[in-house]
């Protein structure tokens, strides 16, 4: 009787563990970089039109993040950004904030910005916030573009996205200082780097404790397996 109850307990724990693992997989999806996802979506859109893929530039991406940071809080009721930073800000503010070597500052050939009063997943942001008219569509398919950079930042009032295009030479423009590390950004995220979006910090911390709990539970489960093997 006790053995059968123990066996049922073992299988119950195994089912719970599988559920935890599934939850961990789902939660881990939130630890990525949505800016890189936007770049991937845009490049797939271009290749479907037989256009060349754009180089994912971290320097240009960081500048895009600075633009999004500058314009946060300017999302109108119809989810458009009413923000026009001075052109000099790109070289005098945004680039230095990122650690972009000024002699390598290239030519910015296009700009797309978007916002939503709620957070959108990358595919939704692409279709609902960034590509909303013929002008943005034509920018995506411009043959002169060679590089792309995306920045995204989240606030309590919504999410802000910025896509910058460049027609400069690949890998030689918008070079970051400190061997490509640049200056660490404390808010938001930008493309060209594997660093998770820092605006998801709370979610990242919760998942960290989730994994600690998972490891403890797995230890208990293995103890049960060892116990039944001994019996």
Q: Which SSEs are present, and which pair or pack?
A:
Layout (H helix, E strand, L loop, with lengths): L1 H27 L5 H14 L7 E2 L1 H14 L17 H10 L9 E9 L5 H9 L3 H7 L6 E9 L2 E9 L10 H4 L8 E2 L10 H30 L1
Parallel strand pairs: 1-3
Antiparallel strand pairs: 2-4, 3-4, 3-5
Helix pairs in contact: 1-8, 2-5, 3-4
List the main descriptive attributes of the protein structure presented here.
231 residues; alpha+beta; Pathogenesis-related Protein p14a; 8 helices; 5 strands
Strand element count? 5
Output the CATH homologous superfamily of the domain at 34-190. CAP
Global mean pLDDT? 81
- Secondary structural class: alpha+beta
State the helical fraction. 40-55%
Question: Can I get a quick summary?
Answer:
This protein has 231 residues and is of the alpha+beta class.
Could you describe the 3D structure shown?
The protein has about 230 residues and is of the alpha+beta class. The chain has a domain at about 35-190: 3-Layer(aba) Sandwich (Pathogenesis-related Protein p14a), CATH 3.40.33.10. The chain is about 50% helix and about 15% strand. The protein is built from eight helices and five strands; from the N terminus they run H-H-E-H-H-E-H-H-E-E-H-E-H. Strands 1, 2, 3, 4 and 5 form a five-stranded mixed sheet that branches. Strand 3 and strand 4 (about 160-165) form a beta hairpin. Helix 1 (about 1-30) packs antiparallel against helix 8, helix 2 (about 35-45) packs across helix 5 (about 120-130) and helix 3 crosses helix 4 (about 90-100). The longest helix is centred in the C-terminal third of the chain and has 30 residues, at about 200-230. It starts with a helix and ends with a helix.
């Amino acid at each position: 009787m006790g053995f059968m109850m123990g066996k049922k307990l073992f299988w119950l724990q195994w089912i719970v563990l599988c559920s935890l693992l599934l939850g961990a997989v789902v939660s881990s999806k939130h630890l990525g970089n949505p800016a890189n996802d936007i770049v991937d979506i845009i490049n797939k859109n271009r290749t479907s039109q037989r256009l060349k893929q754009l180089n994912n530039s971290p320097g240009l991406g960081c500048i895009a993040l600075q633009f999004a940071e500058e314009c946060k809080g300017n999302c109108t009721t119809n989810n458009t950004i009413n923000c026009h930073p001075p052109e000099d800000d790109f070289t005098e503010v945004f680039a230095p904030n990122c650690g972009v070597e000024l002699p390598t500052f290239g030519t910015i050939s296009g700009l797309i910005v978007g916002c939503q009063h709620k957070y959108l997943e990358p595919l939704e942001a692409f279709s609902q916030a960034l590509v909303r008219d013929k002008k943005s569509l034509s920018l995506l398919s411009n043959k002169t573009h060679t590089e792309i950079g995306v920045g995204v930042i989240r606030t309590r009032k919504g999410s802000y996205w910025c896509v910058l295009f460049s027609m400069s030479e690949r890998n030689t423009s918008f070079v970051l200082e400190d061997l490509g590390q640049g200056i660490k950004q404390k808010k938001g995220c930008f493309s060209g780097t594997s660093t998770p979006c820092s605006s998801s910090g709370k979610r990242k911390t919760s998942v960290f404790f989730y994994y600690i709990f998972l490891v403890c539970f797995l230890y208990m489960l293995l103890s049960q397996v060892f116990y039944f093997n001994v019996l």
